Every structure is written in C-alpha cells, then in structure tokens.
C-alpha cells in the first residue's frame, strides 16, 4: 500500500512543495503509525521552507528533501513491538517540528500527546503549537496575574489570537499590534488595537499606561521591537520573545541584549521562549496541553480557523499564510473533515 506526503524539494516559495508517494510499512520497535487527521500550518513551516530560519537545514537536522509540518493530531493506526503508551484507535497529537504534511506519520510512542476523542481535530490541532506557546509564555515565562497590563506584538495570527483568548480568561488589559483590517478581532476579545502602519505603539502605550506595562509578548523577534518593547515595561516587568530571529547575526544581537537587560538592577527581565525544551522535559507540556484541551471542551477557548484545506494542498495553505491576510489559523485536514 501507498500513502502520500508533501515534501520541500528546494528552498523557495510554496511552489517548491510537491506531493510524493511512499510505501506504507509496519511501525518499528517502540514506534507507532498515526493516520493524520489535522495539521497546523505554522510560521516555522514557512521559515524552514524558504531557508529564512536560523538553521541551514531543519531543526532536527534533516536536509532537503523533507516533509514540513510542525504539529499534528491523528489516530493511532498501528503499533510496533514494545509500545505500551498507546493502542490502535487512540486519538493523539505530536509536536513533530517536521513530518506533519502527510497522510501518515511514524513517531516514537513516548512522544505522543493524549487528545480527547470528542474534540474536533481541526479545532484541537492549533493547541499543539500556537496555544501552547501563548499559554506557557503567559503563565510559565511571564507568570501573569489577573488584571496585568500587556502588549501583544503580532496579535492577529494563530499565536496572537491564542493570546487574545487566553488573556481574556485572566482579565488582562491587552494592547495588540496588527494592521487595521484585523482590528475587529482584537476588539472582540477586549484588546486595544494599534495599527503599526499609522501609529507608533510606544507613543500609544506611554499615553495610555504612563506607569508602564507588566509584560510584553513579542512574536516578531527583531531588535527594534525588542528594544521598544523593553522601554515600555515598568520595574519588574517582563518581555518574552518567542519568534525565530531569522539568522545568526540577529540571534547574537538578541542574546547580547538578553544578557545586558537581565543584569541591570531595574527589575526588568527579558525571556526567550522556545518549544525545544519539550525534547528535554515533556511533563510541563503534557500538563499544559491537558489544561488547554479542557478549556476547549468547556468552550472557554475556540481557535479561529480561517481556512481548512486538504492535507495534500499544503502549497496553497502556505501561500495563504504568507499573504499576510490570515486571521487566526490555517489547518490542513483529511477529506472527511472538510
């Protein structure tokens, strides 16, 4: 039997994504085969595909050609010898980093995420990456409190809208940077929108919050935004940056700023967040995913899905995400979920 995947054939635009066929095999020892139901289309998929990422190859060291796809949800289709964590038919997720744009995924059994089977996979899959980033930067990195005043740099995409929903749950006073056509979604969740085309966010915040902000969440990860965001913090405030710096020189500059700010006696702090710690200690992630799945089950959060497309139409989904017009999430799904 065969199955299909979408591979990156060379660095470049969405057209470099091509569909290929693979042989369906039995899982190896301690490995499972997952029939993928839903895949998030995420910004890291694009930066790795275009070669804009910090790495010359994918974060897992796989050189071109490779299958992109950072986060999936699916059903266990077969298990290899020695697998005790899951059984055939279980609903699971995986923070794959690469490998998600595929009809099937082979994955280590101890790296799977339990997913409640009652959840819509298309709605649940943004929780695997976009919502875990927002939740952990809010509650583990910044440790926000009820009523804190915060700025969201990049407030309308998959992670930005996760911040809006999760921030509303803890009554944050939120300011968000987004283009004017996307302001309605910020207003819907109680955030004050700032148009980066026509407004200086530093001036807006200083006028509205002269005593400073408790936290700034930066998804752009460029020095200009970092420095300006740091200038808006009160004593004891925290800036958390969670994006890809996009190159070694930028990373060096950010790390130098990270060291300098955290050594100053003014109480401000600069944090860098990344999901790579999942490979070292998965327990905090499993705890937080369980919280997020419960919030989704209870209707307290509801990921905004702008577009659902078939898994093998990943090139179209990538083009849509790169257009800059997306509010919320773009998700790839199996045909029965369309």
Would you give an account of this structure?
The structure is a single chain. The chain is globular and about 65 Å long. The protein starts with a strand and ends in a 5-residue tail after the last strand. The protein folds into two domains: about 170 residues, Alpha-Beta Complex (Quinone Oxidoreductase, Chain A, domain 1); about 130 residues, Quinone Oxidoreductase, Chain A, domain 1 (Alpha-Beta Complex), CATH 3.90.180. Helix 4 links the parallel strand 8 and strand 9. The longest helix has 16 residues. About 0% of the residues have low confidence. It is an alpha/beta fold and about 350 residues long. The strands form three sheets. Strands 3, 4, 5, 6, 7, 14 and 15 form a seven-stranded mixed beta sheet that branches. A six-stranded parallel beta sheet has the order 10-9-8-11-12-13, sandwiched between helices. A two-stranded antiparallel sheet has the order 1-2.
What's the quick description here?
With 338 residues, the protein is of the alpha/beta class. It has helices at 43-50, 121-124, 130-141, 158-169, 183-188, 201-208, 223-231, 248-263, 283-297, 314-322; strands spanning 2-8, 17-23, 31-41, 71-79, 91-95, 104-108, 113-114, 149-153, 173-177, 192-194, 213-218, 233-241, 269-272, 305-310, 329-333.
């Amino acid at each position: 039997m065969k199955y299909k995947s979408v591979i990156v054939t060379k660095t470049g635009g969405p057209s470099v994504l091509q569909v290929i066929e693979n042989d369906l095999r039995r899982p190896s020892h301690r490995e499972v085969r997952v029939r993928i139901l839903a895949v998030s289309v995420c910004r890291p998929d694009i930066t790795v595909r275009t070669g804009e990422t910090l790495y010359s190859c994918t974060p897992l060291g796989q050189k071109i050609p490779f299958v992109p796809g950072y986060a999936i949800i699916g059903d266990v289709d077969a298990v290899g010898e020695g697998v005790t964590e899951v059984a055939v038919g279980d609903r699971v997720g995986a923070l794959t980093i690469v490998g998600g744009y595929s009809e099937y995924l082979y994955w280590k059994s101890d790296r799977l995420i339990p997913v409640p089977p009652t959840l819509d996979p298309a709605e649940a899959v943004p929780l695997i990456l976009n919502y875990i980033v927002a939740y952990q930067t809010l509650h583990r990195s910044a440790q926000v409190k009820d009523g804190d005043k915060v700025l969201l740099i990049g407030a309308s995409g998959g992670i930005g809208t996760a911040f809006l929903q999760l921030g509303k749950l803890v009554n944050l006073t939120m300011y968000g940077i987004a283009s004017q056509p996307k302001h309605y979604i910020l207003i819907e969740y109680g955030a004050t929108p700032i148009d980066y085309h026509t407004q200086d966010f530093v001036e807006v915040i200083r006028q509205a919050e002269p005593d400073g902000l408790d936290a700034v969440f930066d998804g752009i990860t460029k020095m200009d935004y970092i420095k300006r965001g740091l200038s808006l913090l009160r004593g004891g405030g925290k800036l958390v940056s969670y994006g890809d710096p996009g190159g070694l020189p930028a990373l060096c500059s950010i790390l130098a700023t990270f060291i300098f700010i955290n050594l100053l006696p003014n109480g401000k702090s600069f944090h860098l967040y990344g999901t790579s710690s999942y490979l070292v200690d998965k327990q905090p992630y499993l705890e937080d995913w369980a919280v997020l799945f419960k919030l989704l089950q209870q209707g307290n959060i509801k990921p905004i899905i702008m577009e659902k497309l078939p898994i093998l139409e990943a090139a179209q989904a990538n083009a849509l995400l790169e257009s800059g017009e997306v509010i919320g999430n773009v998700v790839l799904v199996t045909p029965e979920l369309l």
